[in-house]
Amino acid sequence: MGDIEGFETAEAGASETFPMEAGQIRKGGYICIKNRPCKVVSVSTSKTGKHGHAKCNFVATDIFTGKKLEDIVPSTHGTTVPNVFRSEYTLLDISDEDYLSLMDDSGEQREDLKMPSYPDDLEKNIRDGFANGDQLILTVVKAMGEEHVMSVKKDTSS
Questions:
Q1: Which cell locations does it reside in (predicted)?
Q2: By CB distance 3.0 to 4.6 Å, which of 13, 98, 125, 147 could disulfide with 142?
Q3: Dist. CA 158–CA 38, nearest whole Å
Q4: Beta strands per DSSP E along 34-145
């Protein structure tokens, strides 16, 4: 069996989302609402009505903007859950255009992420720590094709 001409392979890697029964999603978990990755703040389940299905009422916040979203899904129906990945980077520099120069544990550098605007105090904490000469570790969250810096902490190991 040789290579098939004109056949292209798909990029290997995890899917952006995966299906899950709505009744399995709990507070603190993730769910996609209006095609946005969200963290579930509360779940309430209504009793089965005359049309059969118990309904799950989800209240969640967009993990990147903090915006509150709500959705109601029958508990036995499938819904989508985002694959959420976290990684930590050391902050090397901040460019004049507010791009962050970051390095991971293996020494790989990246300069494609901008200074975060959410949560509100995060940008100030990064700028203050960088100005003080602190070694900063930034947590980057990736979900559904988006990547954002979500938290900062001082590196106390060095």
A1: Cytoplasm; Plastid, Chloroplast
A2: 147
A3: 35
A4: 36-45, 55-62, 68-74, 78-82, 84-94, 99-103, 109-114, 136-143
pTM above 0.85, yes or no: no
Spatial separation of the C-alpha atoms in residues 117 and 104, rounded to whole Å? 22
Name the nearest CA neighbour of 110 among 131, 85, 140, 136: 140
pLDDT by position in tens, the chain (length 158): 444 454 444 444 558 999 999 999 999 999 999 999 999 999 999 887 777 789 999 999 999 999 999 999 999 999 999 999 999 999 999 999 999 999 999 999 999 999 998 888 999 999 999 999 999 999 999 999 999 999 999 988 75
